[in-house]
Amino acid sequence: MHFFTDPTAVTFAFTDKVFQISSVFCEFSLFGHDVTIKWYGVIIALGFTLAALFGGRIAWTWRIDLGKMVDVLIWGSIAGIVGARLYYVFSKWGWYSAHPLEIPQIWHGGLAIYGGIIGGLIAGYIVCKKEKINVRNLLDMVGMSLLIGQGIGRWGNFANQEAFGVNTDSIFGMWSEKTAAYIAESQAFLLEHGIEADPMKPVHPTYLYESLWCLVGFILIYITLKKFRKFSGQMFLEYGIWYGAGRAVFEGMRTDSLYLGNTDIRVSQLLSAVVVVIFAVLLVVGLVRHKLYPAPIEGVDYFPEGSRVPKKEREALAAREAEKAAGTAQEDKNDET
Questions:
Q1: What confidence tens digit (pLDDT) does each residue in 88-100 have?
Q2: pTM value?
């Protein structure tokens, strides 16, 4: 068994230190077949695990049935992988239509985050309806979990030396033989889309920008969850706005974007902008509606008997019950009169 193979030297503008970054975690033979486990897969698995653990913690706090959560996790994960692959394949349909046997071979690369999110949400919605789970509250949990998974998972791109941007003179500029090779090999593609890049100059480490953006977003939205949550679905809307805004900017820097047909419109950048606008409108509508018609937030399982209802929501429920009781007492008094 061999560990940490396929190394490449990576340098950054802010230091003279040279980092030896391996893309392969380990290689070994199993029943006569060579098996390669890449750092990309290990890091994605780590991000997925931490995201699932966080979601499980929230599920425990909200007293959702963990059996239902496992169903959502399993089907959402499967649909997420399928959705991520289909999104990528359809974005490059001109090539895949001529090489259909490559479509299921995801180990050759080609998964898109947005496709994974869309696929996972569709499957999750179906499971929620079947298991009678509050969909919007579950989305709040999912949005925060996604930021954890995406923030960590982007470091898999660093291990592969991919998903980087155009040239930069900033202190964060990154250079390696792999980035130089990609730019040199992709000159025709880059020039076709109006991008000029020098393989011998540092590039934007957009994987780093997006990773930090996601992790900061998680912290901010988690604080909102604890102190400022007003209605079901609010956290997910904030996730869409935060991630979409960052992705729209970072996608505009990248050299490996998926484009809409033969245009220079980047698919993920356009989708990010649309998500930000729609989610911002829905967030404002939700906050205004809550201010005009304040109501307690339902639980993921509709707050079953004995569940942990937050203090403010307990007080609101108690006030409503008191008003109802007072109204009933007044009706009884009127009947006696």
A1: 888 888 888 888 8
A2: 0.84
304 pLDDT tier (thresholds 50, 70, 90): very low
- The amino acid present at 156, given as its one-letter code, is G
- Dist. CA 301–CA 299, nearest whole Å: 5
Q: What are phi and psi of 44, to 5 degrees?
A: -60, -40
The letter for the amino acid at 277 is V
Coil, strand or helix at 167? strand
Which whole-number Å values give the CA distances from 202 to 10, 174, 182, 184, 316, in the listed order? 10, 5, 13, 13, 57
CA dist., res. 140 & res. 190, Å (int) = 38
Is residue 228 within 8 A of residue 291, CB to CB? The reply is no
- 273: phi then psi, degrees, rounded to nearest 5: -65, -40
Give the C-alpha separation, 273 to 270, whole Å. Answer: 5
- C-alpha dihedral (78, 122, 275, 244), degrees to nearest 10: -20
Kindly give, in sequence order, each residue whose CB lies less than 8 Å from that of residue 48, ignoring residues fewer than 6 positions away: 77, 149, 153
**How many angstroms separate the CA atoms of 159 and 25, rounded?**
10
Q: In what order do the strands lie in the sheet with 174-176?
A: 33-38, 18-30, 2-12, 174-176
Evaluate whether 166 touches 204 at the Cβ level (below 8 Å): yes
Type of residue at 49: T
Type of residue found at 280: A
How far is Cα 75 from Cα 249, in angstroms, rounded to an integer? 31
pLDDT tens figures, 123-166: 999 998 888 888 888 899 999 999 999 999 999 999 999 999 99
Name residue 254's amino acid: R
Q: Distance between CA 12 and CA 157 in Å, rounded?
A: 16
| Residue 26 · residue 270 · CB < 8 Å | no
- Averaged pLDDT for residues 62-75: 85
